[in-house]
Amino acid sequence: MSVTVRFAPSPTGRLHIGNIRTAILNWLFARKEGGRFLLRFDDTDLQRSKEEYVVAIREDLQWLGLSWDEEARQSDRTARYDAVAEQLKAAGRLYPCYETADELDRKRARQLARGLPPIYDRTGLKLSDEDRQKLESEGRVAHWRFRLANTEGADSLTPLPTLINWIDVIRGEQTVDVGSLSDPVMIRADGSYLYTFTSVIDDIDLGISHIIRGEDHVTNSGVQIELFNALGATPPQLGHHSLLVAADGQALSKRLGALSIASLREDGLEPMAVVSHAALIGTSDPVEPHTDVAELVELFSPSKISTAPARFDPAELATLNAKLLHELPFSMVADRLKGLRIETDEAFWNAVRGNLEKFDDVKEWWSVVAGTVTPVIEDAAFATRAAELLPPEPWGGNTWSEWTKAVKEATGAKGKSLFHPLRLALTGREAGPELKVLLPLIGRPRALARLQGQAA
């Protein structure tokens, strides 16, 4: 079976860690199966959809390395939706209703008060042509509902238990009782189409074979399967992944604005750290950094995705980001270092990468070895003696141990009393990379000047 999946964001805001996880799972699935990954903009909400968000979504996906094989926009397909709507109206599966939102709210309240399920009572199906003409003459405008196939026959309006079943590629056997649901609105009174309607038509026309999305769509899937059937199409295979929650188990939704992909990028996180975290969180695989997305493709399987909520902790992502940097070989960062005007070699990168939390931290350590540092001198006499014992260059891997041994013998200092004042003098910092690898990079002229209390 040829695999085609889609990521279908609405361009009404920035992508965040929640919906990018859906994109990544779909992308990995497509690449694992040798299939296609489509980007579809669900932009039928003309008031809220903005071109700036279309551009931003593309930028976010590109930054993460998620290339797409085809792009579509729902706003280009209105004529197709119109044609399908007429087809369903003619078949009696779309029918007009005239209640206002306030009237529907009151109707639901009355049903609840009587101990009845608050589902639509299909008043719209009981209207005669004269009834509809009268309502329209009063200024009423119809919205259109899709009639679920949950009655004994076309003449019956009473919903009965009607089970829609499918084998979910993530959750296993799933069942939705469409007999307990209202006939869903497919066309608003203003003529605009709702997501459920347009999405099914797009999935048919674009040949979508699998839909991987959040578990909040499980009930909606029962309705969509009915709509696929009404249009004579085979529903795609469905997979519903768990949703993200905060580290404390609370809903993440209110915090997603601060977790946009743009904000993560601006905070200096590595794209592969974000991809690794999103791909592995809530799965049976350990959440570890991967420098090559091919490794994640190889690991991916829908069966590994847990049905339990996945806990997202920004601190865990930050730690993963640091671990990723610590593993990056020089070949993968050489051009980025040049972009920061850091002309260096592998020795420098290997010396400092273990102390980076974000890539830009490298600038601090480049300043230490090649820029100007204001030394911190705790004991002038000790620093002077250490300066006198600096060996001549060339320096190598044994220079630090040979020099500190000589300083120890000359001053009697040892342990922290030996190493800490030397670090402060040479780097101006309390902690950092091992000085045995940093000292040869600093070089004798700078080291000597700093031990003498000079900014160098």
From TrEMBL:
<keyword id="KW-0648">Protein biosynthesis</keyword>
<dbReference type="GO" id="GO:0005524">
    <property type="term" value="F:ATP binding"/>
</dbReference>
<dbReference type="InterPro" id="IPR020751">
    <property type="entry name" value="aa-tRNA-synth_I_codon-bd_sub2"/>
</dbReference>
<keyword id="KW-0963">Cytoplasm</keyword>
<dbReference type="InterPro" id="IPR008925">
    <property type="entry name" value="aa_tRNA-synth_I_cd-bd_sf"/>
</dbReference>
<dbReference type="GO" id="GO:0004818">
    <property type="term" value="F:glutamate-tRNA ligase activity"/>
</dbReference>
<dbReference type="InterPro" id="IPR033910">
    <property type="entry name" value="GluRS_core"/>
</dbReference>
<dbReference type="InterPro" id="IPR049940">
    <property type="entry name" value="GluQ/Sye"/>
</dbReference>
<feature type="binding site">
    <location>
        <position position="254"/>
    </location>
    <ligand>
        <name>ATP</name>
    </ligand>
</feature>
<dbReference type="GO" id="GO:0008270">
    <property type="term" value="F:zinc ion binding"/>
</dbReference>
<dbReference type="InterPro" id="IPR020058">
    <property type="entry name" value="Glu/Gln-tRNA-synth_Ib_cat-dom"/>
</dbReference>
<comment type="subunit">
    <text>Monomer.</text>
</comment>
<keyword id="KW-0030">Aminoacyl-tRNA synthetase</keyword>
<keyword id="KW-0436">Ligase</keyword>
<dbReference type="InterPro" id="IPR001412">
    <property type="entry name" value="aa-tRNA-synth_I_CS"/>
</dbReference>
<dbReference type="InterPro" id="IPR004527">
    <property type="entry name" value="Glu-tRNA-ligase_bac/mito"/>
</dbReference>
<dbReference type="GO" id="GO:0005737">
    <property type="term" value="C:cytoplasm"/>
</dbReference>
<comment type="function">
    <text>Catalyzes the attachment of glutamate to tRNA(Glu) in a two-step reaction: glutamate is first activated by ATP to form Glu-AMP and then transferred to the acceptor end of tRNA(Glu).</text>
</comment>
<keyword id="KW-0547">Nucleotide-binding</keyword>
<feature type="domain" description="Aminoacyl-tRNA synthetase class I anticodon-binding">
    <location>
        <begin position="393"/>
        <end position="452"/>
    </location>
</feature>
<dbReference type="Pfam" id="PF00749">
    <property type="entry name" value="tRNA-synt_1c"/>
</dbReference>
<comment type="similarity">
    <text>Belongs to the class-I aminoacyl-tRNA synthetase family. Glutamate--tRNA ligase type 1 subfamily.</text>
</comment>
<feature type="short sequence motif" description="'HIGH' region">
    <location>
        <begin position="9"/>
        <end position="19"/>
    </location>
</feature>
<dbReference type="Pfam" id="PF19269">
    <property type="entry name" value="Anticodon_2"/>
</dbReference>
<dbReference type="InterPro" id="IPR000924">
    <property type="entry name" value="Glu/Gln-tRNA-synth"/>
</dbReference>
<protein>
    <recommendedName>
        <fullName>Glutamate--tRNA ligase</fullName>
        <ecNumber>6.1.1.17</ecNumber>
    </recommendedName>
</protein>
<dbReference type="GO" id="GO:0006424">
    <property type="term" value="P:glutamyl-tRNA aminoacylation"/>
</dbReference>
<feature type="short sequence motif" description="'KMSKS' region">
    <location>
        <begin position="251"/>
        <end position="255"/>
    </location>
</feature>
<keyword id="KW-0067">ATP-binding</keyword>
<dbReference type="InterPro" id="IPR045462">
    <property type="entry name" value="aa-tRNA-synth_I_cd-bd"/>
</dbReference>
<dbReference type="InterPro" id="IPR014729">
    <property type="entry name" value="Rossmann-like_a/b/a_fold"/>
</dbReference>
<feature type="domain" description="Glutamyl/glutaminyl-tRNA synthetase class Ib catalytic">
    <location>
        <begin position="3"/>
        <end position="304"/>
    </location>
</feature>
<dbReference type="GO" id="GO:0000049">
    <property type="term" value="F:tRNA binding"/>
</dbReference>
